[in-house]
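G., the chain you wanted modeled:
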Amino acid sequence: VARENAGLCGGHLHRVSPCNSKSPGEVRQEVDNRAMDHRPLSAIVLVAGEGTRMRSSTPKPLHRLCGRPMVLYVLDALAEMNVDRVMVVVGRGATELTKTIQADAARELAIEFVEQAERHGTGDAVAVALTGLFGSYGPADFDEGDVIVVPGDIPLLRRATLLALLDAHRS
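Predicted structure as tokens:
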């Protein structure tokens, strides 16, 4: 049976042809399975870096752009998506980062924090975050969803970019 999959790209519909049609001319009623296509989506936001090139005592994601910390722009882009959970990996400046995010991030985001005590790079930060995700839901539930990893210091990140990335991954 052919189905329409709304995906996540601004309502673009992708038609999937049936693979098991009984005859070439057979016409079947299309079924809208979009509600069943929802896969849980979690996000990992990396804000644990040292930011040594910034030469500042302020954690890099808290540097202001147009009056707001950079990390808030990233969280705004995630808030515009159907993200079920956001795991923020903190390190240097963890207290300041956590307080700022808790106070100013979009309320609809389910934000959790995990600390990367010893910083051993991006891969280690993602591993720490995944441990937090596994610990909450268990591997069986985790396997059913997707995780998007984004740095917390890219304020020009937009919903459309994230949705295109996610759509490419899922197709």
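The chain has five helices and nine strands.

Shout if anything looks off.
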